[in-house]
Design goal:
elongated, eight-stranded mixed β-sheet, disordered C terminus, alpha/beta, four-stranded antiparallel β-sheet, about 60% helix, disordered N terminus
């Protein structure tokens, strides 16, 4: 069993399809190229001026102050300045400085718009138009970590240079103002924090001193857990554990709320704290320790515990206020909802710590009770907390004090004057040539677009083309064998050109030695193909070529007349048969021009007369080949041809010649071929690959078979080289001699 080879993509077929429909490709490319060239010439030139600016960074702030107040990142500073250049306020100032709104085109537009809407003045419209004009034409482009370029574009080179110069000056001025404002804010912050931390340090030292004095004066406190209240302590511990779980859930909810309100600032807000908040938290934890002791010694509704709860509530309120203030100072732009969410998060955090501290104290009391010891851990922990608070406040105060606030601010101001300054290292110069439009690129893109459109048209046309382009497809659809594929030959184009010349000149060639005959008697690709056709006809007819053969097609221009003439020449030359080539296409006769013989008298004259005379036949350069032209034109050719079968003329033809080849009109348009097919031995249908829609071909074959099933096969005319490459004789190296043979035939 033969293994089936999978069908592969044949690039030659696609290239042939493109070549066949090359004008569908060439025209869009040419049109697109012309449109692109015209457009490129019509676009006004755009000039570009630019200046290069660098930042001389000199950060002379000492490290302690830098850690406390922070440094302004250069990246953020440059980003803010870039945004400022694009801001409407900056552009409005630039428009007013350069009088851009007075441009004639802008003023005309503003007046036109004012007539449509008088509510807006011409000046406002012109200014708005100028701002819109400037915004896409200026840019600040980063070139390095400390350098960038200011770019301005305009239709006029002078104005582009002015734009770049003014933007550069405004840019540098804005940068210096921003740096001075930053230094002043650092100074204000330093002075404020110096006072605050001095007060906090004094308060912490006094608080620790009072605590130590009270501790010396007081005696050790006995463990409050006794045999009478040990059960209540167990209950209090269980309650603390439950409250701790609830506090953990509340803390998670507060974090979720803050993250949803401020996703960008959440990480910073979650870790944001201050010494004041820490102090308030420590006081609340201390109060919670006292609550634990009081709950063990007395009931939960006594005056002492109520007083503690009031103090806790007041401290929580103070903590909430401090947290809000800290959030607003750290992020001035935060909404009140985010500020409140941050404060509630801090409250939830300290509540969890307080409950955890209460549970820890209760557990320690219970442990001491079981071990029989007396302890006062809360005093030790409170003393440790106070010491840590004093040390922390002292360290911060000394850091600010070390900076020597007045001297530090002076130093920072000097740094702002000497360093961190924007410096123009390359001022803008007047551009000498435009940077846009890029005319070659526009033309290239236009050509490419035309190429894409052309290829799309070619592919769409090829897909919508229903003509036959493959022999296997033809045989499968029509159910008839392809007996010959006429190769594309230059001689056929030459013959067509000669016929046009004869028609225009009114001359008549009557020598009988036609270009086609001279071409076919030699060894040419077409000659080989028709000799192959003759052998197939003989094989199909039991060893002998049919005596009478009718050649037709489904549509005009498919090459039936040429095919009939080539078959007649082949039989006469290579088989030595006496052949009559009869032109039965009485409506558009062409055979006499193809074979270069006189048109009259001919077939119509013989039919009118009732017999065939020698004058009705034309001799050719081949002794055994005769042409019976169409003859005098008749008004009713169908009636005349209908009487040809069985007539004396037909009998004389069949009796005088070995083979009679009839060239008839297309069988779909007129019934001539159908009327004559009953008299002949076989019919050959010619179709042109890639030209006639398959529906028309199928209809022609159907009509012919309905009349009489004597269709021998098909001749496929490959004039446009539509069939696959292996049907082209040039593929096998016969193209070179083709031109030589044509030249010889024209001699």
């Amino acid at each position: 069993m033969t293994e089936q080879v999978p069908k592969q993509v044949d690039l030659r077929a696609y290239l042939k399809a493109v070549w066949r429909r090359k004008w569908f490709l060439i025209i869009p490319v040419v049109v697109a190229g012309v449109v692109g060239a015209v457009t490129a010439q019509m676009l006004p030139p755009i000039y570009e001026a630019k200046s290069t600016v660098v930042v001389r960074v000199s950060d002379r702030l000492s490290e302690p102050l830098a850690r406390l107040v922070g440094r302004s990142p250069m990246e953020g500073r440059l980003t803010r300045l870039q945004e400022k250049v694009k801001s409407t306020s900056f552009l409005v100032e630039l428009v007013r400085t350069l009088d851009i709104a007075d441009d004639d085109a802008i003023q005309r537009w503003a007046r036109d718009q004012n007539r449509k809407d008088p509510s807006v003045s011409v000046e406002e419209l012109a200014e708005s138009r100028a701002v819109s004009y400037l915004k896409p034409r200026i840019a600040v482009v980063r070139t390095s970590s400390t350098g960038f370029q200011i770019v301005a574009r305009d239709y006029e080179p002078e104005r582009a240079t002015l734009l770049a110069q003014h933007i550069t000056n405004a840019f540098v001025s804005a940068s210096n103002r921003e740096q001075l404002e930053e230094i002043r804010s650092i100074h204000d912050f330093s002075v404020e924090q110096l006072v605050i931390y001095k007060q906090k340090l004094d308060d912490a030292e006094r608080q620790m001193q009072r605590f130590q004095e009270n501790r010396i004066a007081s005696s050790p406190v006995a463990n409050p857990v006794t045999a009478q209240n040990v059960n209540r302590v167990d209950v209090l511990m269980s309650q603390a554990q439950v409250e701790g779980d609830d506090a953990a859930e509340a803390l998670a909810d507060r974090r979720t709320t803050l993250r949803s309100l401020a996703p960008a600032e959440y990480d910073i807000l979650a870790g944001l704290t201050s010494t004041t908040l820490q102090s308030e938290s420590n006081q609340l934890i201390s109060l919670e320790r006292e609550v634990a002791s009081v709950l063990v010694r007395s009931s939960s509704d006594g005056p002492e515990i109520s007083s503690l709860y009031v103090s806790i509530a007041e401290n929580k309120s103070q903590l909430r206020s401090e947290a809000r203030e800290l959030a607003r100072n750290s992020f001035p732009g935060l909404s009140m909802g985010i500020v409140n969410a941050y404060a509630e998060l801090k409250i939830a955090e300290i509540e969890g710590s307080m409950i955890s501290e209460r549970l820890s104290i209760l557990q320690r009391f219970m442990w001491d009770y079981t071990q029989g010891r007396v302890s006062a851990p809360e005093e030790e922990m409170e003393l440790t907390r106070l010491r840590q608070e004093v040390e922390s406040n002292r360290a911060l105060y000394e850091a600010f004090l070390e900076q020597s606030a007045a001297g530090q601010i002076t130093e920072a101001l000097e740094a702002a004057r000497a360093g961190g300054r924007f410096e123009v290292i390359e001022p803008p110069v007047r551009p000498t040539s435009p940077v846009a439009p890029d005319r070659p690129m526009i033309i290239m893109l236009s050509l490419f677009g035309g190429l894409v459109i052309g290829l799309g048209i070619v592919l769409a046309t090829e897909q919508s083309d229903t003509s036959f382009k493959d022999v296997a497809d033809i045989e499968a659809v029509l159910g008839l064998p392809v007996m010959a594929t006429v190769p594309e030959a230059e001689i056929l184009h030459s013959i067509g050109s000669r016929e046009k010349q004869l028609r225009r000149g009114g001359t008549k060639a009557t020598s009988g030695d036609s270009m086609l005959l001279r071409y076919m008697v030699r060894e040419t690709p077409m000659s080989f193909e028709f000799r192959r056709l003759a052998r197939k006809l003989a094989k199909k007819n039991g060893g002998d070529i049919p005596k009478s053969i009718l050649v037709t097609s489904s549509n005009r221009g498919e090459g039936k007349t040429t095919a009939a003439a080539c078959l007649a020449i082949t039989l006469a030359k290579h088989y030595g048969r006496r052949v009559a080539l009869v032109d039965c296409d009485l409506r558009k006769p062409r055979l006499h021009m193809l074979m270069e013989v006189a048109q009259r008298p001919g077939l119509t004259d013989a039919m009118e007369r009732g017999n065939l005379l020698g004058s009705d036949m034309r001799a050719t350069a081949l002794d055994n080949l005769f042409v019976v032209p169409s003859g005098t034109r008749q008004s009713e050719p169908t009636w005349l041809l209908e009487s040809l079968p069985g007539s004396r003329v037909m009998s004389e033809l069949l009796g005088s010649f070995d083979h009679v080849i009839l060239d008839t009109a297309p069988n779909v348009a007129v019934p001539d071929a159908l009327l004559l097919s009953c008299e002949v031995d076989g019919v050959i249908i010619v179709l042109r690959a890639g030209a006639t829609p398959r529906e028309v071909v199928m209809r022609g074959v159907q009509l012919q078979l309905e009349e009489k099933e004597n269709v021998l096969g098909l001749i496929v005319n490959n004039l446009e080289r539509v069939l696959p490459y292996y049907y082209d004789y040039r593929y096998y190296g016969y193209g070179a001699s083709e031109t030589e043979l044509k030249d010889e035939s024209e001699e």
